[in-house]
Amino acid sequence: MPTTPSGIADLFFPAGHPLHGHETAVQGLRECGAEFHRRGWSLGTSSNYSVVISRDPLELIVTASGKHKEKLAPGDFVRIDAAGRPTCAGQPKSSAETLLHCIVAAKRPEVGAILHTHSVSATLLSNRFRERGHVPIAGYEMLKGLAGITTHETAIEVPIFDNTQEIPILAEQVSRRLDDPVAPLQHGYLIHKHGLYTWGRDLDEARRQIEIFEFLFECVRSE
After folding, report:
1. pLDDT of 129 over the 60 cut
2. What is the pTM of this model?
3. Neighbouring residues of 180: CB distance < 8 A, sequence distance ≥ 6
4. pLDDT digit string (tens) for 38-60?
5. β-strand 155-161 against 188-191: which pairing, if any?
6. DSSP string, 97-143
7. How far apart are CA 211 and CA 100, in angstroms?
8. d(CA 111, CA 208)
9. Residues of the chain with pLDDT > 70: what percent?
10. CA torsion through residues 68, 70, 71, 72, sign
11. What CA–CA distance (Å, rounded) separates 87 from 170?
12. Residue ranges per domain, the chain?
């Protein structure tokens, strides 16, 4: 059995610590790591997760770089500003993809959490449909688990972005799609041979979106 994070009663950051007062958010992200690892969606040090803790100014808590997601410790998180910079010195280095979280949080004021996973199905589908530019999903009952969808008689297209180590460039591409007046990003997107980004009003909704997407990806992969 995997090691699960300790209970919230055991998690406490002293006054003055950048994560003080945000123990529940940190614990929720630790639980995401343990659960997503167990289900094969966040193996090793892959993936990154965040929650929005302030809107004015915009601040997030995001996973630190290079941490095994099954065993995230209370200190494996960074409090960052809208530009992805640590809000104070002495914190660990944040995920290399921090800007991708910041862009969604800034462009979507209703978003409270952003999650990124690296499942086998998401990775393979992002390659199978690369030339099309999106993964088509239609007719499945589980589509109703995505925010705003009320019937299985619907179809969505999950955009695919090219993979790059130049995260500011990718963040700008995502930003433009979020603002697209014709086909804006709604539920999430894929990065080629990489993984899924999705979000929600809070961490619970973002976790649900991950589960729904991963189920749908497995269905499409088997078609």
Report:
1. yes
2. 0.93
3. none
4. 999 999 999 999 999 999 999 99
5. parallel
6. THHHHHHHHHH-TT--EEEEE--HHHHHHHHHTTTTTEEEEES-GGG
7. 20
8. 14
9. 96
10. positive
11. 23
12. 8-222
Task: Match 């080629």 to its residue by tokens.
Answer: 192
Please calculate the CA angle 61-65-70 and round it to the nearest 5 degrees: 85
Residue 210: both structure tokens together: 């991950």
Q: Do you know the residue count of the chain?
A: 223
Structural contact between residues 20 and 14, judged by C-beta atoms closer than 8 angstroms:
yes
Helices (H) and strands (E) in the chain, counts: 5, 8
Rounded CA gap, 219 and 93, in Å?
A: 37
Listed in sequence order, the DSSP H helices in the chain are 23-38, 98-107, 120-128, 167-178, 203-222
Beta carbons of 198 and 113 less than 8 angstroms apart = no
Q: Is 156 left (phi over 0), alpha (psi -120 to 50) or beta?
A: beta
The closest alpha carbon to 31, from 63, 78, 79, belongs to 63
Report d(CA 196, CA 160) in Å as an integer.
9
Work out the angle between the directed axes of helices 23-38 and 203-222 (0-180°, nearest 10): 20
> Does domain 8-222 bear CATH number 3.40.50.150?
no
Each residue of 1-18: pLDDT tens digit? 233 444 444 689 999 999
Residue with tokens 């100014």: 57
